[in-house]
Amino acid sequence: PAHPDPKVRCPSLLAAPSFFRSISYYGATGASLAALQGDFQKFAYAGICNVRIWTEWGVPVDDVRVFDKNGNVRPNRMKRLVDLVSIAGSYNVSVDLTMSRPLFNSLAAHIKAAKSLAMQFKGNPAVAFFDLCNEHEGKINADQYRQIAEAVIAIDPDRKLTASTSGQVSFIASKYAEILKATPHIHLLTPHFPRVKGWGAKEGPNAKQLANLLGNMGTTIPPIYLQEPARNAYQGQYYPLSEFVDADKSARASGVTGICFHTGAGFDLLNKPLFDQFDSVEMNLLLYFYNNPL
Asked: What is the pLDDT of residues 272-286, one digit of tens each?
């Protein structure tokens, strides 16, 4: 590292960076405290200032989930999530907390879990936002999103919220238009664009197209965060370093608020830290981030 303090690589949590880099950290609630400390220090050194955490992660075992199917807190995993957020904040790294509707038995259970998150992290600046439903299409509708969002805002009025959406750009635009008509409580858009050949260079243009489509619908457009681009090992696909670098450059040029490095590693963090699981392309991308700070 070029500086002994990794915190200088990320702005203050109270600042509003014009662009940030993020990383997926799937089963983080199963990681040891030592692994979390080591990984977050490396995130900060690389200039990765946001980390995406799943509160319902069932790989390799359901025990790493923060909530059960009825929306009840699993105390040991919530404690680890609290520890994780504290460690993140100590490095000026924020987290976004992603919920997954299919792992709840009902809307009531989903709302119960969301309220628990809101109570636990009320006013905590190390939590950037909640993704109330990963790839919400076909899982919750706009009115159900409104109900979950209002339950959170009633507890934590300043909490930023979203629901990620996947598919073709026009489909994503239609889904966000529905939510934006239903509630003002969606504070950023988190599209997951198609994982197709040449996806890296398409991330930025896709984001611009999404903004244009929503603008043409007369909709006020929240900031766009490219939360889940393609990753290595998805359906057996592997990409060269240049594809990920293209995504980073494309995103920065498009004016979006950030992009996530969606990795093929970290599904199982019970026994090994994330940085010990990267393939060579992923490790070289981290080096690229380090050598090309924002």
From this structure: 999 999 999 999 999
The neighbouring-strand residues paired with 53 are 97
Q: Which two tokens stand for residue 231?
A: 């990753």
Sign of the CA dihedral with 56 first, then 263, 38, and 288 last: negative
- Degrees to nearest 5, angle at CA 254 with 283 and 99: 65
Within 8 A by CB and 6+ apart from 121, the residues are 85, 97, 127, 156, 159
Per-residue pLDDT tens over the stretch 147-186: 999 999 999 999 999 999 999 999 999 999 999 999 999 9
Residue-wise pLDDT tens digits, 205-226: 999 999 999 999 888 899 999 9
| Sign of torsion over alpha carbons 209, 213, 218, 223 | negative
Q: Assess contact for 50 and 126: CB atoms under 8 A.
A: no
Strand partners, 54: 98
Element (H, E) at 277: none
The pLDDT tens digits for 92-119 are 899 999 998 888 999 999 999 999 999 9
Q: Is 14 helix (H, G, I), strand (E, B) or coil?
A: coil
Cα atoms in the Cβ-side hemisphere of radius 13 Å centred on 33: 7
- d(Cα 200, Cα 190) in Å, to the nearest integer? 16
Q: Enumerate residues 6+ apart whose C-beta is below 8 A from 292.
A: none
The two structure tokens encoding residue 96? 């976004």
Task: Specify the pLDDT at position 11.
Answer: 67
Q: If you ran DSSP here, which 8-state letter would residue 208 be given?
A: H
Helix (H), strand (E) at residue 291: helix 280-291
